[in-house]
Write a structure and sequence with these properties.
The protein contains three helices and ten strands. The chain is α+β, with helices and mostly antiparallel strands and about 130 residues long.
Length: about 130
């Protein structure tokens, strides 16, 4: 494991995974090419509200997928997983006082369970930086 840090947060990246900043988001990916976790960060000095979080997740609020309320370290929010066009997706909409994170993991549908535990451990290791 190694630590990957941004301006606002850090996570533990497992062996055989890499992390980099690319196209405005942090990308943490499996070197075997199975899937990737992408985390976008929004900082708002005035604070992040539940309404902002729900606005981000709005596409799922009226759909048939099940939303799950979650708490990960200093962050709380919503998680949803679904399959679309032979791909498996899991999305997390997370917030803390001034930070809003949108994290998504996708892979081929047949590999949906291969990285599940690893991706969860990455997200569970998230730490807010001062």
């Amino acid at each position: 494991m190694r630590k990957y840090s941004t301006k606002y947060w850090s996570v533990n990246v497992p062996t055989l995974w890499d992390a980099e900043f690319s196209d405005g988001a942090d990308v943490i990916y499996d070197n075997k090419g199975v899937g990737e976790l992408i985390i976008s960060t929004l900082y708002d000095e005035q604070g992040v509200s539940d309404e902002q979080l729900e606005a981000m997740a709005a596409e799922h609020l009226n759909s048939s997928v099940e939303l799950e309320d979650i708490d990960i370290g200093d962050f709380s929010g919503i998680c949803v997983s679904y399959s679309k066009d032979s791909e498996y997706w899991c999305e997390w909409y997370l917030r803390t006082s001034n930070i809003l994170l949108f994290a998504s993991y996708n892979c081929d549908e047949e590999n949906a369970e291969e990285d599940e535990d690893v991706v969860e451990s990455i997200l569970e290791s998230i730490e807010l930086l001062n």
